[in-house]
Specification:
Blueprint lengths: L1 E3 L6 H7 L3 E2 L3 H5 L8 H16 L10 H21 L8 E3 L3 E3 L3 E3 L3 E7 L2 H10 L7 H11 L3 E7 L9 E7 L4 H27 L7
Parallel strand pairs: 2-4, 6-7
Antiparallel strand pairs: 1-3, 3-4, 5-6, 7-8
Helix pairs in contact: 3-7, 6-7
Length: 212
C-alpha cells in the first residue's frame, strides 16, 4: 500500500483513483453479499473496466444540490470537529492498493480517520435518534479501516439547520468491532475485481457478438 498526500477532487486525485475500486462504492459491491452481483455492481464494474481501457474517467456518476452543499460545508464541519475534540485533522490523501483504494476525509494522529457528511435536517435527526453512524455508510467506514490499516474511524454528521450545540455529532467505529466484516469485505472485493477484469476482457475481445 502507498499513501499519496493529495487533495480530494483534484486532477492528481482523480488520476490515482482511475479504474480502481474505491471505498465510497464498497456499499455497492457489498449489496447481496454471498449472492451474485446485482445490476448496480455490474454497472460499476463496467465503469471501471472502461476507465482502465481508455485511461480516462467515465462519467457514470451524478451531482445534485445536496452533494454540492456537502462539499461546500465540509470545511466548516471539519473545523467544528477539531474544536470539539481538541485535535488536528490532517489531509486524508489516497491509500493506494493498486486495484482498490480509499480517500478518508481526514487523518487524526497515527490511528484515526474521519468521514464527514453534511446532510439535510431529516437525515441528521435520524442519526441523532439512532445514536450511531448512518448505516448507509457502513461499508465505506469499514473500508476506511481496512484500506488505511488504522484503528478507528469517526463518522461525523453535520447540519447547519440545527441549533449550534447539535449541528455536529460524531460516532466512533473501532476496528476490533468489525473484524469479521473486514474479512467479508476483502473476499467480496476480490470477487468484484475479478468481475471488472472479466468485463474488460469481454469489451476488448468483442465477446458480445455482431449484428447480422
Amino acid at each position: 500500500m502507498i499513501w499519496h498526500d493529495v487533495e480530494q477532487n483534484g486532477e492528481e486525485w482523480d488520476a490515482l483513483r482511475l479504474g480502481k475500486v474505491t471505498a465510497s462504492n464498497f456499499g455497492v459491491i457489498m449489496a447481496n453479499a454471498g449472492k451474485a452481483f446485482g445490476d448496480p455492481a455490474k454497472r460499476y464494474a463496467l465503469q471501471l473496466a472502461l476507465e482502465q481501457i481508455k485511461g480516462c474517467k467515465s462519467e457514470f456518476g451524478f451531482s445534485n444540490d445536496h452533494m454540492e452543499r456537502g462539499h461546500e460545508q465540509e470545511p466548516i464541519a471539519r473545523m467544528l470537529y477539531e474544536e470539539m475534540n481538541f485535535v488536528d485533522v490532517d489531509n486524508g490523501g489516497f491509500f493506494d492498493h493498486t486495484t482498490y483504494g480509499d480517500s478518508p476525509d481526514g487523518l487524526i494522529g497515527a490511528q484515526g480517520v474521519v468521514e464527514i457528511k453534511s446532510v439535510i435536517a431529516a437525515t441528521h435527526f435520524a442519526t441523532l435518534n439512532r445514536g450511531s453512524y448512518d448505516p448507509s455508510y457502513k461499508w465505506q467506514l469499514i473500508g476506511h479501516l481496512d484500506c488505511s490499516g488504522r484503528e478507528w474511524v469517526d463518522f461525523v454528521s453535520y447540519c447547519s439547520d440545527f441549533p449550534a450545540e447539535r449541528q455536529l455529532i460524531a460516532y466512533r467505529l473501532n476496528r476490533d468491532e468489525v473484524i469479521d466484516e473486514i474479512d467479508l469485505l476483502r473476499s467480496r472485493r476480490a470477487d468484484f475485481i475479478r468481475l471488472v477484469a472479466e468485463t474488460k476482457t469481454k469489451i476488448l475481445s468483442g465477446g458480445y457478438g455482431l449484428c447480422e
